[in-house]
Specification:
Length: 260
């Protein structure tokens, strides 16, 4: 794990436990509000992270945001049992529904004595912290339950797994909603984008739009070639196996096609 400062209030903490994927947790230390976006694999990781980070200027309890229900973004929630934990309503439902299946499928990452810790503050539209200039908003895409966070004063947009290089993993087939989310990202014109995994920039919004549009128009042949083919193959398998419904898909834990 290592951390770096994006601004004097925002820190990005990066983990390599799911190697070759890097997983990012974003921490905000503001005046009167402290916030953590996603909680990675477990409470001990979160406690280790907090020991490493600078002390927040106010001792307000951390508010947690879960960008979506996948295990590598929520299993550390139990480090924050007394916190407000924000997600979309759908994320709450999906965490509950798929918790046991996700645990069984990813048991190597489950910390002994960990427990399920659900979001307790559910959004269906934008939630704003006006003084801090922070907006949490639903952003269906990679999964239907996704939400994103815009730090207006910092110019930083946290997109969860909706953007990933070279193309995102897909579990929802609501292409229209995904495209709307990506258009919304573009309209925000954030100075910096922070993804759940790896590094992304504004160009990844357009790359992702092209990929989703290819699915929408049944013209995905280009993605059978490098550097896309491995993720695209997984997306095809996954979406054909699960049809149109919401499914208990997990985030990438298979070897990275582009790291070969
Ligand atoms: Zn993920």
């Amino acid at each position: 794990m290592n951390f770096s400062s994006i601004t004097d209030r925002l820190f990005i903490v990066t983990w390599t436990d799911l190697s070759p994927y890097e997983t990012n947790v974003l921490v905000y230390h503001g005046s009167g509000i402290n916030l953590i976006i996603d909680t990675f694999l477990g409470p001990s990781k979160m406690k280790q992270m907090l020991r490493l980070l600078p002390e927040p200027s106010s001792n307000t309890p951390y508010i947690i945001v879960n960008t979506h229900y996948h295990f590598d973004h929520v299993w550390g929630n139990s480090a924050f049992l007394s916190s407000v934990r924000i997600s979309t309503s759908l994320c709450y439902q999906m965490m509950k529904r798929y918790f046991e299946a996700d645990k069984t499928a990813n048991l190597t990452y489950w910390e002994p004595n960990n427990q399920i810790c659900l979001p307790n503050c559910l959004i269906t539209s934008t939630l704003t912290f006006p003084e801090a200039g922070i907006e949490v908003f639903p952003s269906p895409g990679h999964s239907e339950d996704s939400c994103s966070v815009f730090f207006r004063q910092e110019g930083v947009l946290a997109v969860g797994d909706n953007l990933e290089r070279p193309i995102p993993y897909l579990e929802s087939q609501d292409w229209q909603k995904y495209l709307e989310t990506l258009d919304h990202y573009a309209s925000i014109q954030a100075d910096k984008l922070i993804a759940g995994h790896g590094i992304v920039t504004q160009t990844d919004i357009e790359t992702s739009k092209q990929y989703i549009y290819a699915w929408q128009t049944h013209q995905t042949e280009k993605y059978d070639a490098e550097p896309y083919k491995n993720i695209h193959r997984q997306n095809k398998l996954h979406l054909s196996a699960h049809g149109d419904g919401v499914v208990g898909h997990t985030c990438p834990t298979t070897p990275s096609p582009w790291a070969e």
